[in-house]
Amino acid sequence: MALIKCPECELQVSDKALSCPHCGYPIKSSGDAQKGRGNAKSKRRRLPNGFGSITELKNRNLRKRFWCRICVGKTPYGKPILKPLKPNAYFNTYNEAYEALVEYNKNPYDLVLSGTL
Hints:
It is elongated and about 65 Å long. By secondary structure, it is α+β, with helices and mostly antiparallel strands. The chain folds into two domains: 3-40, no CATH class; 44-115, no CATH class. The chain has helices at residues 30-35, 94-106, 111-115; strands at residues 3-5, 12-14, 53-56, 66-74, 80-84, 90-91. Strands 3, 4, 5 and 6 form a four-stranded antiparallel sheet that branches. It has a two-stranded antiparallel sheet with strand order 1-2.
């Protein structure tokens, strides 16, 4: 990290800064900032707390590799208790698993009763 002079206010600014913290003059364009991070569009966003989880099962030769679980409570230590979504917990794509989680959270049902039918 090196310090450079801002072209507008001539105060010292980090060479990694996007804009001058003193005057707001843009130091780097937004295109330059994205180069070092890799492909940021391929990263999936976090799911809300208590919403459930979607896990991609790797190192297996599976057709349905996305596993969907529902948060049914928490342990006394704060760790979530997750149970597989019933009747189908495995999905072909992440988007299908996400849609199933959204449908479950719109109208939650008891996982124990649905598994016995």
